[in-house]
Structure prediction request, 396 residues.
Amino acid sequence: MNEERKNKLKLLRAQRLLKDADEAEGVVTEYLKGDPGSDGQDGRTPTKKELAGLIEPLIPKAIPGKDGKDGKTYTYVGSWKSGQAYKEGDVVEHEGSSFVTLQDHTSKNVNEPDNGSEWLQYWGVVARKGAKGQDGYSSGGGGGGSSSGVQSVTAGTNVTITGTAQNPIINATGGGASTWGSITGTLSSQTDLQTALDAKQPLDTDLTTIAGLTATTDNFMVSVASAWASRTPAQVRTTLGLVIGTNVQAWDADLDTWATKTAPSGTVLGTTDSQVLTNKTLIASTNVTEEITSATSSSAPAPTGGSLRNAYDLTALAVGATFAAPSGTPAHRNKLWITIKDNGSAQTLAWNAAYVAGGVALPTTTVLGKILNLGFMYNTNNGLNKWQLVASAQEA
Prediction:
């Protein structure tokens, strides 16, 4: 016999013993019952004070509850705007519904109530925009009919309403000379009213946002995160990624001075540029310029003469040479320095008529393997207009 069956048998025996005990108690009680006793003394009616003393201990005492949490304060701050700093508890209206801020934040597209991808993290719904109501009665035909809606309006100072609630007639009478006449049909069929409405600016969310911005001196109105906002010049520079000294030229007094100068026409000559000047006149007395040309060997050497200082080098003359007139337009006292060295064989030298002796004779030959230095100066005195040889130095 398993343990569970043993426990059930023990329970049945215990129930049977209890039943037998109840029956035995009934028999004994009936057998030992005595005669009825005499009536007891009538009790008196207790006073109100005595009753209160008896009842009071029986009335349960109230236990004070814990203090409740402070309630939240909600502040209506108007229509929702992008770029606005909102605090927890601020209430806004947006597209016909009202919302309460759940946490401090600055508004932008991603947290725009009902529209942004993250708006539920920042806003709770206070009240939703109601459903569109039924269309009103459309106005009917002319007088005498039973059509509903406004049947006639006459301009004036006194206005009366006749008809029924379903079919009102608004009348205005007075001294005005002009009248609107009767308004019949749909609202859009009133051509004068429609013309007036067409001349008005249609409702636009961008214009509504712009109208809500505060005009601040020196601020810019820019689009931030696809919404219009008022920004300081520093904020705009940051938004555009402009760093002074990197993307934007820092202010400099010298640049202000240069800004007052008149720019020259044509090409401006740079200090390190290689440029060809066309239609320019260089005045040797006021422009210090230098031009150096050279050749290894030439039968017709052609030095320059239009600069204040000109130099020409022949480094290994291998043929007889006749020097051509210097190129350019020379000025009085322009200088020309010619250096000649042959190739190890003496070579003959001849000179154009532009060259003349100036106290030193023009050389007619080189000295074998020696350097010859010749110094010329352009002279316009007495109408000479020639290159005078004023110095000659032969290597020893």
